[in-house]
Amino acid sequence: MIKSMTAYANYKTKSHWGIVNWEFRSVNQRYLEIYIHLPDKWRRLEFEIRKRIRQHLIRGRIEGILHLEINANYIITELKINKELVKKVIYAANLVKMQSNEGIINPLEVLRWPGVISDSEQDNNIVMDNEILNTMDNAINNLIKTRENEGAVLKSLIEKKLESIKKEINKIRFHMPEVLKLQHKRVLEKLKNIEVQLENYRFEQELLMIAQRIDITEELDRIDAHINETFNILEMQGAVGRRLDFMMQELSRESNTLLSKSINSDITTYAIELKVLIEQIREQIQNIE
What residue stretches are annotated with the Endoribonuclease YicC-like C-terminal domain (predicted)? Predict the structure, then answer.
């Protein structure tokens, strides 16, 4: 599916502790560049955020901004004591004391034992972190949908331009027999004016050389092949922007050859229109992932 690299999306979540609002902007870029703006306290989430974005996006400059509104009475730090763990620590300490017949059990040392004390802020942070990441996932999904919608529009525009290119190619093919006939006539007139007579064999050889120099059949065939391949690429899944850009380079090269071989104003006009259409498509492709 064709995806545009230009998009905007946001997603807002309300919970018991406050409001989470993510904003994402995406513009075209050769590679994937991610810029995340987070409150200082939540910079610890940046690695996970970048990881999740890379799982969904391949190209583009992505800028994400996190807005938080936290209820003032939510974050109240309370110490929590793991009573079951305290009992086990004291029991173990008493066993050691009985075996050694020395030492005392210091309550402060018991409190220092890992896991005995925890605070509510840690639990709050876990809840908030999960909410922030889940909201971000939804915002990224909205961004992807927007990129897909924009991509569908770009695809339609490109397909119309490709059809226009095919029409210009058909015009050139239609006029080529007439162009060759006129060129044959011009050669005869020039020879007549300078009163040069050539043997039939030599004359045919000269005409053949001229025809080869102005023959554009191969170029037209290659352009047809490139157009068909471009249509196929537009139906592919994943990132296809670079493939499309390469095809436009090939089409541009063939159109330049058409112009260089043109000996007729009509053919030149069609070839110029061809180049204009190719450049228009190329401009649109710069926004495709």
Answer: 175-289
CATH topology of domain 152-285: Butyryl-CoA Dehydrogenase, subunit A; domain 3 (1.20.140)
Please say whether the structural domain 7-72+124-149 has been given the CATH code 3.30.230.
Answer: yes
| Whole-structure pTM value | 0.70
How far apart (Å, rounded) are the C-alpha atoms in residues 210 and 91?
A: 106
Nearest one of 132, 3, 117, 123 to 56, comparing CA atoms: 3
Q: Where in the chain are the domains? A: 7-72+124-149, 79-119, 152-285
